[in-house]
Protein 1
Amino acid sequence: MSILAVDVRWGVRGKVVVDGVSLDVAPGSTVGLLGPNGSGKSSLLRLLAGLRPASSGVVRLGDDDLASLGRRQVARRLAMVDQEVVTDTDPTVRDVVGLGRLPHRPSWAPLSATDRAVVEASAATTRTGHLLERPYSTLSGGERQRVQIARALAQEPTELLLDEPTNHLDVRHQLELLELVRAASTTTVMALHDLNLAARYCDALVVLADGRVRAAGRPADVLTTELIADVYGVDAQVQSVDGAPHVRFTGVLA
Ligand SMILES: Nc1ncnc2c1ncn2[C@@H]1O[C@H](COP(=O)(O)OP(=O)(O)OP(=O)(O)O)[C@@H](O)[C@H]1O
């Protein structure tokens, strides 16, 4: 399934945060959402997830207008991993990953054999199987991040939205996660700060600045010295390494 946004706007307390964003994410592709702190990446992801309504514009999931779908219908196909997940109970990791099965079963029913198998498989894919019986609250930041990815995979989504999924992860786990996302058949949009990882693992990049799309397209077309200077205020050299642009930062612009 694909994700389409047309002229989407959202603001809060009189401030425009997402300012007329249009995106067309091809089925099965991986799109990196870049931009400085506060440029609107998380806010846009929440609009694409239907967690909040846009004040104007349209978001479509495949053939459907997101606004016409119920929360459960959305959750059967779209999973989101947010930056901070707060729980007020102390579930085990198995319980947390099992939450991903909620949209697929009656809320009163226990996990079926299929649900349990999907939980195990999602934990195996994210290398969190050894953590399943641990209280979630005792995990490290990186372990929690991987468990949240496992929870999202247990939803068996066709669309996956990830907000800084490599946050907290060591370099090996970062690469493993991005390989996993690239190999998955899901349509994925992920906010990232690392321009080089984004260039290497995404089919397309969208750069936000002040809530607007400043550039979008293939990594090699988007990540230019001019764009990086303009959007981040940083001087950089961009070379091609193994077919992907590689950015070397050389200083902060005055
Ligand atoms: N609920 C809210 N109330 C007030 N301001 C908000 C709210 N949500 C977002 N903002 C503001 O909107 C702007 C965009 O925030 P957002 O979290 O979308 O940016 P971001 O690009 O994801 O940033 P970061 O890279 O720092 O995570 C910020 O200035 C933020 O303070």
Protein 2
Amino acid sequence: MTHMDFDALVALLRRIFQSNGTSATVADILARNCASAERDGAMSHGLFRMAGYVATLRSGWVDGRVQPRMEEGGASFLRVDAANGFAQPALAAAAPLAIEKARATGACVIAIRHSHHFAALWPDVEPFAQQGLVAIAMVNSMAYVAPPGARHPVYGTNPLAFAAPRADGRIIVFDQAVSVLAHGDVQIAARDGHLLPPDAGVDASGQATRDPRAVLDGGALLPFGGHKGAAIALMIEIMAAALTGGLFSHEVDWSAHPGAQTPSTGQCLILIDPTRGGSAAGFANRVEQLVTALHDAGQERMPGDRRLAARARALRDGIPVSADMLRQLEGLIAP
Ligand SMILES: NC(=O)C1=CN([C@@H]2O[C@H](COP(=O)(O)OP(=O)(O)OC[C@H]3O[C@@H](n4cnc5c(N)ncnc54)[C@H](OP(=O)(O)O)[C@@H]3O)[C@@H](O)[C@H]2O)C=CC1
Ligand SMILES: O=C(O)C1=NCCCC1
């Protein structure tokens, strides 16, 4: 096991992306995103994903050089055609104008379509909260999740992330898949020989199983909270696909692109300027009062605490990378 400095890890990942055909800008955005996930302990969307990024690039399914196209959608609306590129560069291109619109009008919807999102969502929302805005992000993917009663999966694992400013410049963030666990964690469980939690998935015949391979081989993941999680998955399909102009998770067809691992789907972000609300005490102070009430009631861990603790550890000690992972990463650099 080595411990890598964040910048050194970013440089290695940047090299992998660029040697596999992305522009320098896209390589930098994706490398920072992926290294941040590993640094913050989001293993299902950190270095584990690099082989998939490369497979998707090499299959020709995603365009790593394309420029996202911004379309005026109205005073509080910004449409972005990611043009079959990655989602993060599309969001990076849209963010300055979206922030301007949110401040000018109170809110802004960012509707990104035809985009590939392979990553964790908290990096998509954190920067907005750090600039004083409330941000909600919704992303659909491919059909991995079967709602109660369905015979086959229809929804993606459809993550939902939320970020809001707290007092003293801090923020509160949660970021969660709609499935009991992310598909990436099922793949990691299969790789490492671990069982899934109960109620996480079903096998190809619809029987409950804790075997990750049975879920991956024709089975399905289940939404958290039964029909309640399924309703959130439904909302995310509608917001990330129907609203943006993207594909529904069940419509994705990459049969012409063997090896591709991300879908060309959509993502929707909603930015809100909380100073427009009605709180006399100030929004961030009210959020702080709620967090204090939760702590006083006995909730010790808030969403984001584990991630921030992992980040602090990594900044102090470096990011742990196994010798095997380092070999794999070096093997992904195209000649
Ligand atoms: N791009 C895509 O299509 C997809 C991406 N993903 C990504 O996968 C990642 C993992 O998702 P998922 O497995 O659902 O995430 P987790 O279940 O690990 O965590 C979900 C949220 O709950 C918080 N949390 C976890 N445990 C507790 C606890 N005991 N008390 C309080 N808060 C807690 C986490 O904070 P903390 O981070 O601090 O642990 C996090 O904000 C996400 O980043 C998601 O965006 C998932 C599906 C698809
Ligand atoms: O882990 C997941 O679930 C996913 N992550 C990236 C894209 C597809 C689904």
